[in-house]
Specification:
single chain, about 180 residues, alpha/beta, Rossmann fold, 6-stranded mixed beta sheet, 4-stranded antiparallel beta sheet, 3 helices, globular, binds inosinic acid
Length: about 180
């Protein structure tokens, strides 16, 4: 499929399934080399990361734990407005090497927030990995250890990424056709 319509928007093919798989495998191989001999705690950030994590971990040859966290928004006080919170971490990551797995880094605000929250659990080290990265959009000083593909500042869907909840099941990544 070269074009898809999701809700009211049209998208065109941007990154093929083959390219995605190559990039994911390459990243896993780098992790295998660089994290060899360590006990690694992988944390996928839901929802968008589920396909990326499922494919990545199949290539990992490390002593590791894999878990998923979610960012929940709730209404704070009138001064703080919407507050975000990381939910789902039941394991003790103190003193461990943690690798955060994200689907996409856009402004970088989410990853920056996640990193700050995780520091509170006192891991030995936090590494950041993302399949897609929009350098032109990134406003935070996040230092990414593993980047799959750098992309322009355009909206993309597929391979776990959604447009209003739809399109996550697509095997390839599509970019928006601006009208
Ligand atoms: P950030 O905080 O701006 O870096 O991005 C946070 C979240 O926005 C990501 O984890 C995605 O869930 C979502 N997001 C950012 N860009 C896109 C996109 O192009 N397509 C789908 N979701 C996106």
């Amino acid at each position: 499929m070269d074009k898809v319509k999701i809700l009211d928007k049209e998208f065109k093919l941007f990154i093929s399934e083959k390219r995605i798989q190559e990039v994911v495998e390459e990243m896993a191989h780098r992790m295998n080399k660089e994290l060899k001999g360590q006990k690694v705690f992988f944390i996928g950030i839901l929802n968008g990361c589920f396909m990326f994590v499922a494919d990545l971990v199949r290539h990992l040859d490390l002593d590791c734990t894999i878990t998923f966290l979610k960012l929940a928004s709730y209404q704070g006080t009138s001064s703080t407005g919407k507050v975000k919170r990381l939910i789902g971490l039941n394991e003790d990551i103190k003193g461990q090497t943690v690798v955060v797995l994200e689907d996409i880094v856009d402004t970088g605000i989410t990853l920056d927030f996640i990193q700050k929250q995780l520091r509170g659990y006192e891991p030995a080290e936090i590494k950041l990995a993302t399949l897609l990265y929009k350098p032109e959009a990134c406003r935070q000083d996040v230092s990414l250890d593993y980047v799959g593909i750098e992309i322009p500042d355009d909206f993309v869907v597929g391979y776990g990424l959604d447009y209003n909840g739809c399109g996550r099941n697509l095997r390839q990544i599509y970019t928006i056709i601006e009208d």
